[in-house]
Specification:
With 236 residues, this protein is α/β, with parallel strands linked by helices. It is built from 7 helices and 9 strands. Strands 3-2-1-4-5-6-9 form a 7-stranded parallel beta sheet, sandwiched between helices. A two-stranded parallel ribbon has the order 7-8. Strand 4, helix 4 and strand 5 form a beta-alpha-beta unit. The longest helix is centred in the middle third of the chain and has 22 residues. The radius of gyration is 17 Å and the shape is globular.
């Protein structure tokens, strides 16, 4: 069902983004891999091309409008359309109270998690048509606030609001918009969030990726609007 489709994935070099890229490659999707770390991008591109699909890695800073525009100018030379957009790029602030939170850190988290999702989506929409899908990888923090994570919570609450608005705007165009809200998932973001977190209790990135693929493979007359995933043991 997904064979031959073109998927753009941000945050594609690690965590849920890379796991989703691998899962989509297994389904026969051609991939555009977006990330900031050129070394990890090259490694992901080499790995995924070995799966027999076409994978193109393009360095891009989703926070920067000019960088996003440059990526789309480049990708359109290889792919005239995008069937699937996975917004998975995201960062977190370290555990700090609002009183201690640095303005620069606040701005960086909001720019990556919220503005970046907007910039990538806005640029992708002209390349998408009926039957396309947009998946925004958010967090359970999109609906549940945690102390000492003001920037991360604010970015995810905002991104869910953006996702819900986008869905209503493109519904008539036949483009599905899915909000994915994972609970604790074992990804590198915990190095910033909570280095001592009990990762053995978390979901694997591959589990989230499998759920995303399942949502994308639903018949065209149906959709999942919000996908809430939790470790079987519940919140940490």
């Amino acid at each position: 069902m997904l064979n031959g489709r073109v998927a753009l994935i941000t945050g594609a070099t690690q965590g849920i983004g890379l796991a989703t890229a691998r899962a989509l490659a297994d389904e026969g999707c051609n991939l555009i891999l977006c990330g900031r770390d050129r070394k990890r991008l090259a490694a992901a591109e080499a790995e995924l091309c070995n799966k027999g699909i076409r994978a193109v890695a393009i360095s891009c800073d989703v926070r920067d409008e000019k960088s996003v525009a440059a990526m789309f100018a480049k990708l359109q030379k290889s792919f005239p359309r995008i069937d699937i957009l996975i917004n998975s790029a995201g960062i977190a602030n370290a555990f700090r109270s609002v009183a201690q939170l640095d303005t620069g850190e606040w701005n960086d988290v909001l720019a990556t998690n919220l503005t970046g999702t907007f910039l990538i989506t806005r640029a992708a929409l002209p390349l998408m048509s009926r039957g396309g899908s947009i998946v925004n990888v958010l967090s359970m923090s999109s609906k549940r606030a945690f102390p000492n994570l003001a920037a991360y919570n604010a970015s995810k609450f905002g991104a869910l609001g953006f996702t819900n608005t986008l869905r209503e705007e493109v519904r008539s165009e036949g483009i599905r918009v899915v909000a994915v809200l994972p609970g604790a998932t074992d990804t590198p973001i915990w190095g910033t969030l909570w280095p001592e977190a009990p990762r053995h209790k978390m979901m694997r990135s591959e589990s989230v990726a499998q759920a995303i693929v399942a949502a994308l493979k639903l018949p065209p007359e149906s959709t999942v609007e919000e996908l809430d995933l939790m470790p079987t043991g519940g919140p940490l």
